[in-house]
Amino acid sequence: MILIDGKLTSQQIKEEIKSKVESMTSSGLRAPHLVAILVGNDGASETYVGNKIRTCAEVGFKSTLLRFDSGLTEEELIAEIHKLNDDEEVDGFIVQLPLPKHIDVHHITAAIDPAKDVDGFHPVNLGRMTEQLPAYIPATPKGIMQLLERYKIETAGRHCVVIGRSNIVGTPMSILLSRNAYPGNCTVTLTHSRTENLKEIARQADILVAAIGKPYFVTADMVKEGAVVIDVGMTRVPAPELKQGFKLAGDVDFKAVAARCSYITPVPGGVGPMTIIGLLQNTLLAAQHRIYPAHVRQ
Ligand code: GUN
Questions:
Q1: Would you name the residues annotated as active-site residues?
Q2: 139 in ligand 1 pocket by Cβ < 6 Å?
Q3: 95 CB under 6 A from ligand 1?
Q4: Inter-residue contact 70 to 40 (CB < 8 Å)
Q5: In angstroms, rounded to a whole number, what is the distance separating the alpha carbons of residues 31 and 19?
Q6: pTM of the predicted protein model
Q7: How many angstroms does the Cα of residue 224 sit away from the middle of ligand 1?
Q8: For the chain, where do the domains classified as CATH 3.40.50.720 start and end?
Q9: pLDDT in tens, 85-111
């Protein structure tokens, strides 16, 4: 069994990004600038956004965190988004999810200029991704694709089973792995809460992507001998023995499953660190106007 080390891979890619930023700034260009909007004070979102901002500093990006209290209205948030769309000093921005219930996430993603949508959540980017046109690819699937690539995992013709159909992970993952590319060319089965015989289907997977958000959901009897297992889960579970009072649990029962796998990602240290890498890479592409060259503002 080979452990897919997302932490190490993310460090290597951070070095690569950092040297690209250095050559940009030494040729007189400004550093890429990412803005994150955080509404309310959800504990997990605070941690994720904090990590994104900290990692920007590590690679030489400028970053700005805009915080609003949970009473912010949808109209007010859209007005902030319009300001960022028009701000030439901002290359890309994200609105951290989940949002308070009174704000419709579809109205928010639709308000973001696709050329600055470094989360890749805007329908234009999702459509362009599906058509295999240049697009911002959502960060977590983008990070997973790079793990498959850097570990030279064979994907063509293999059966990939994705568990979970979220817009952020499961659905884009299923699209990316079925495209005519490497990694890709898989036969993909997208499973979800209404899937019958999930165990039997999972057991047919050469590549199993667990993105359902249920701790330890994937047990050893759901995994074929020699499968590649990608664990996207990051649920906080109580851990009174730890100072912070919780730990991160994956969607996979790691100890039992690892023994059956050819490759597996751990939690933490697998997919998680690669998600931030996907976001940094999208922001770099935005600063270089690589996805939407016609958008360069004069
Ligand atoms: N919440 C959980 N994952 C993400 C993500 O990738 N982007 C944003 N904006 N919010 C999230």
A1: 52, 96, 119
A2: yes
A3: yes
A4: yes
A5: 12
A6: 0.97
A7: 31
A8: 139-271
A9: 999 999 999 999 999 999 999 999 999
